[in-house]
């Protein structure tokens, strides 16, 4: 049986993150951010950098904290608990870590220290309109007289305009490429999108956008492997974020039901209410367990396709059930925008569907089981 309890160092990390987040997530500040044009908490990003949190999975030689994927997910759970918008998954998990593992020495030494210092933000363009397969993009890489350009459209690109580079999957003669695009390049057009959480997202149009050969992360069969590597870790990171969101929703609900009275008793004392909360507690424990299983295997660089899909199935189902139960037990106050619960419910809905719904991942697990027999 695997032991997922945290070490003293990991507990100290969790406490540090919670302390920084508590200082930066006051109610009025969050409301101001939600009403701003970007909803990007830049002060928190800078505080994370100063505390060494942006360098968690990177080596000391590149300015990092030399921790690992597990520690990065501890940070993500706390981010989910406070649900404030910073590009941690996009910059650290989806782009920074693959650059560190698969990038050239020049690429690593150029970008990783800038990520750790908070000076460079990166993101990834997973999706295209009508296409969710990162390994089979319709965006084309063309080359004329030695000049390479990309033409295509990417959608739901988080922090696209705020980022310095976007990792773009594209194809040349059926061969996959993963290429970092400088957002200052000509031929890039950003169209702001509305989304559930208020996170900055864009439809990005690339029209003969020139690329630098030094910014090619991977190509061919290696790019296929890197794309799988990125997808597994990003999906797991979303599950860790969901653990924090679900925990906060449950904590809010428990606190409310202990105070709200009906018939001269707190409603928490009613059997139907306590049973509903207990169901949420069990759901959350299961989500946390399967997520920690996936995180642990990936941190050891072991095969975890099945475990990641199982975690995402629970992520989709549990965030939905806890969100629904929290609203039910709160009554009408749950949708009041001056009360925090509505924000958690919005995040729960988005996390439920990002990188595949529960049904999508059930099909994946079924395929894995069929192929293994």
Topology summary:
Elements: H1 8-24, H2 27-34, H3 42-50, H4 69-82, H5 88-102, H6 105-116, E1 122-124, E2 140-144, E3 147-158, E4 165-172, E5 175-182, E6 188-193, E7 201-210, E8 216-219, H7 220-259, E9 261-262, E10 265-266, H8 271-299, H9 305-330, H10 341-353, H11 358-372
Describe this structure in words.
It is built from 11 helices and 10 strands. With 373 residues, the protein is an alpha+beta fold. Strands 1-4-5-8 form a 4-stranded mixed beta sheet, covered by helices on one side. The protein has a 4-stranded antiparallel beta sheet with strand order 2-3-7-6, with no helix packed on it. Strands 9-10 form a two-stranded antiparallel ribbon. A hairpin with a 2-residue loop joins β4 and β5 (175-182).
What's this, in brief?
This protein has 373 residues and is α+β, with helices and mostly antiparallel strands.
Q: Gyration radius, to the nearest Å?
A: 21 Å
The chain-level structural class is alpha+beta
Shape: globular
Give helix and strand order, one letter per element, not per position.
HHHHHHEEEEEEEEHEEHHHH
What strand order characterises the main sheet? 1-4-5-8
Give start-end ranges of low-pLDDT stretches: none
Helix content: 40-55%
Number of helical segments? 11
Largest sheet: 4 strands, mixed
The overall pLDDT, averaged over residues, is 92
Distance between the termini: 25 Å
* Count of individual beta strands: 10
């Amino acid at each position: 049986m695997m032991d997922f309890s945290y070490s003293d160092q990991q507990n100290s990390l969790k406490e540090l993150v919670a302390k920084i987040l508590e200082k930066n997530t006051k109610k009025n500040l969050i409301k101001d951010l939600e009403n701003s044009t970007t909803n990007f908490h830049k002060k928190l990003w800078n505080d994370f950098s100063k505390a060494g949190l942006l360098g968690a999975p990177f080596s000391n030689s590149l300015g990092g904290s030399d921790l690992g994927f597990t520690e990065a997910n501890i940070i993500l759970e706390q981010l989910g608990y406070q649900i404030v918008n910073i590009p941690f998954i996009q910059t650290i998990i989806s782009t920074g870590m693959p650059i560190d593992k698969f990038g050239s020495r020049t690429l690593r030494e150029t970008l990783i220290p800038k990520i750790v210092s908070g000076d460079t933000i990166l993101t990834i363009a997973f999706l295209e309109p009508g296409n969710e397969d990162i390994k089979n993009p319709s965006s084309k890489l063309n080359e004329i007289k030695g000049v390479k350009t990309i033409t295509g459209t990417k959608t739901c690109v988080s922090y696209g305009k705020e980022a310095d580079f976007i990792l773009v999957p594209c194809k040349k003669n059926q061969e996959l490429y993963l290429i970092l695009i400088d957002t200052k390049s000509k031929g890039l057009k950003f169209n702001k999108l509305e989304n559930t959480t208020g996170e900055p997202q864009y439809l990005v149009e690339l029209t003969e956008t020139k690329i630098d050969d030094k910014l090619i992360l991977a190509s061919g069969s290696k790019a296929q492997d890197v794309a799988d590597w990125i997808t597994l870790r990003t999906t797991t990171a979303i599950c860790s974020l969901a653990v924090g969101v679900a925990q906060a929703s449950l904590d809010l609900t428990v606190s409310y039901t202990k105070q709200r009275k009906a018939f001269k008793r707190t409603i928490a004392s009613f059997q139907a209410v306590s049973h509903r909360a207990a169901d949420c507690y069990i759901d959350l424990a299961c989500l946390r367990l399967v997520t920690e299983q996936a995180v642990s295997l990936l941190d050891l660089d072991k095969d975890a396709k099945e475990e990641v899909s199982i975690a995402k199935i629970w992520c989709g189902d549990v965030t939905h059930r806890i969100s629904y139960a929290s609203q039910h037990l709160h009554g009408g106050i749950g949708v009041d925008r001056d009360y925090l619960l509505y924000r958690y419910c919005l995040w729960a809905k988005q996390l439920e569907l990002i990188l595949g719904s529960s049904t999508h991942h059930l099909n994946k697990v079924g395929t894995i089981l069929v192929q293994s027999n």
